[in-house]
Design goal:
Blueprint lengths: L2 E7 L3 H14 L4 E6 L6 H7 L3 E4 L7 H12 L5 E5 L4 E2 L3 H6 L7 E9 L6 H10 L5 E3 L4 H4 L10 E5 H6 L11 H11 L3 E11 L6 H17 L1 H7 L5 H16 L4 H19 L6 H7 L3 H5 L5
Parallel strand pairs: 1-2, 1-4, 2-3, 6-9
Antiparallel strand pairs: 4-8, 5-9, 6-8, 7-9
Length: about 300
Amino acid sequence: MKLFLAVPTYNGGEVWRQVAENINKYSPDTRVQVIDSGSCDATARVATEAGFQLEIISSLDFNHGGTRNQAIALQADDFDVVVFLTQDAIPEINFIDEIIRAFSDPQVACAYGRQVPHKDANPIAQHARYFNYPAQSHVCGLTDAGRLGLKTVFMSNSFSAYRISVFKELGGFPSDTILCEDMFFTAKAVKAGYKVAYVAGAQVRHSHNYTPVEEFKRYFDIGVFHADEIWIRRDFGGAGGEGKRFLLSELKYLLAKNPLYIPYACVNNFMKILGYWLGQKYKQIPTSLIKKLSMHKRYWQSAGNE
């Protein structure tokens, strides 16, 4: 299968430089399409020096789904699969070879790889990656929805791959969501009878040491997404007790690794719950306040969301 990499960037800094170096180190002959949203640092220069294809857009034109659709439109006629990375997801050896194996099953429409923590990840960030991206691979489809609920259509464009023929068939990503464009497409694909694969052998380093305020804002935006796309929870249900399992797993992990982080984790989790709850009610909140509550402020600055 012919594939290309697509990476949206914006002020990627030194981590982006390492991402570019590892792409060329571990997948030197792969075409890479970068779409940069008007970076003020050396991000665009790093891309061109690495030999990547570069498209520059205005920061106001960026959208998680629409910008990735644009990357596919620039290259898709010549390729079978697109692999997405974010600018802070550092590839590990064989990351391409492993994730492409998932598409040997013709029913697999999309796949995502394993994200292991950055070397500077705190214990909370470490656990989140180990919990959400385990060491065992799996493939699931619509018949798994009763057992897995919303986890059936989990996907992360920090490191993911899509079969371009199916991507076009189903209309690609939505161009007007605040985030979770990856889950939106995956849900459509699973409902259409396709499968989603998790490939544990394909790895990148990617994590965030979010503060409680950042967790609040991130989950506020997730709540906005679920408020707008109510069909996903309606058709696939909730997380099936995943939240409780996460909390117990996190407590056990922190007790073993660093108990001093337990109070911090409690605050973090409270802020996630509060943020998600408010995000679901965003239509009742003034736009001026929404911009303060949201992590993705550029979304609210676009013409359709003022």
